Amino acid sequence: MKNRPTRRHPSRRTLMSGTVLSSLALAAGTTGTARAASAALPARTGRAATPESYTAIPVAPGGGPTPTDRVHVLRIGPRDAATVLVLVPGMFGAANDFRLMARDLVAAVPGLQVWAFDRREENLADRAGFGGSDPAGYYLDGHYRSQDPAASAFAAGWGLSLTLCDLRAIVLAARAGGTRRVVLGGHSWGATTALAYAAWDFAGRPGFRELAGLAVIDGGVLGAFDGTGTPVQDSPEEVRQRLAAIEGGAVFDMTLSRVGLGSRAESTQIWYQLAGWYAHQDPGGRSILQPRLPAALLPSFPVSNAALLGLLVDAGFGWPNDITVHSGHFAESADSDGVRGWVDDGITPISRVAEAYAGPVPGVWEWYWPARLSVDLDVTDVYADTDLARSLDLRLYHGAGIDVPLYAFGTSYSKGTVVEGARKVAAGSRVPYGVYESDNGMNHLDPLFAATDRNTATHSLAEFLRKVPSATR
To answer: Signal peptide position in this chain (predicted)?
Structure first.
């Protein structure tokens, strides 16, 4: 493929060093929270039209501003569904990760509704600029409200314990008093979160007691990430250093600030959403963002909005596996205006990425990922009640008792260790049966956005969901 930038970027997990950054690298801004609207979303048109809504659910106070004491759920599918699949996004992920997958699953599995979980951190994001005429100017010229880490000490306590308490509110709402089955799943660290929920002790009640099944996509525990080349950082010394950094003010995980698209915790996420928004609004038009790209990423010729998004997300440009898809390439020749567009020749059309990334609410990328949550999820990999886990209030007491079916799907990202980890979970528990699938032709984000007819993750997960036991408990 010609004219591709060759600069390679380390992955999110490689970049992560427990958020040990100088406070000078944490860009200051005004404090406050953005109110993410709870609203009915337009149903899809045509034969496959299905209800979609994005609603707020109150949760217990977490020490932050009052508007953060709520989480949101993107609901897709019939309201009278007998089975609800609750999905948790991964690191820096948000609810719109799952919209396209959810639509495909609902169309394939009768009686299924999908709920995609947005953590309380999403209340901190200011997405108001996408309602105006110049979102690039609003965000890239610094007019938006950025969450100041120096005024966000509350986020130092936003770890896995709080996340699972919030998630439980979603699970209980989905169960509707036990009248519906709930399958809990997730992608990447969202898969780790789902497995942690199953093993968690909620005031004496194991989390798995509220579930009819588990579904993990390209993530998990017990060495699931070993094949990525960047295993978890969970030694006592690493944990001590990371907690000290958080105590010193590094409350947000700064990993994505190091990929060259800005120095704030949210800079890269904003770039991705902007790229998706313009590619969705005017895919063939001359890129609005190209003149603002850092020099290291700047193509030597004019590209379209869709091609600019392709530059940021396609595996062929040197970005790491965990933030890329197999989409296509720049057009070999320019149009009449001298602009080179995008050619789809992979499993994930750039239009689907654009539709998901555009949002604006819900979004695909979480702006402010708590550093404490990163620590806790790394330590969760051992999936046992250890002294280190207890010191972090990780109540992983019930892994051996899990007695629900397990689905696991791995891509080329982990080189097989996601499935290996899932098999270990099943072997050390009472899981009645497991379904283990993989597709090495996929990168880490392909299962979320791949074309319906080419998404092996969606196809195999739908088959699993059709066979989930009917009994509720």
So the answer is: 1-36
Nearest Cα neighbor of 341 from 298, 303, 288 is: 303
Determine the length of the chain. 473
CA pair distance 455, 348, nearest whole angstrom: 9
Structure tokens at 112: 């299924």
pLDDT digits (tens, 9 = 90+) for 429-463: 999 999 999 999 999 999 999 999 999 999 999 99
Question: Do 51 and 142 form a contact (C-beta atoms < 8 A)?
Answer: no
Beta-ladder partners of 193: none
C-alpha 161/C-alpha 277 separation (Å) is 34
10 Å Cβ neighbour count for 178? 11
CATH dotted code for 37-132+157-244+380-466: 3.40.50.1820
**437 Rama sector, left if φ>0, alpha if ψ -120 to 50, beta otherwise:** beta
* 389-431: pLDDT as tens digits: 999 999 999 999 999 999 999 999 999 999 999 999 999 999 9
Domain ranges across the chain: 37-132+157-244+380-466
Q: Is there a contact between 90 and 322 (Cβ–Cβ < 8 Å)? A: no
pLDDT tens digits for range 78-125? 999 999 999 999 999 999 999 999 999 999 999 999 999 999 999 999
Contact 340, 307 (CB under 8 A): yes
Do residues 451 and 347 touch, judged by C-beta distance below 8 A?
A: yes
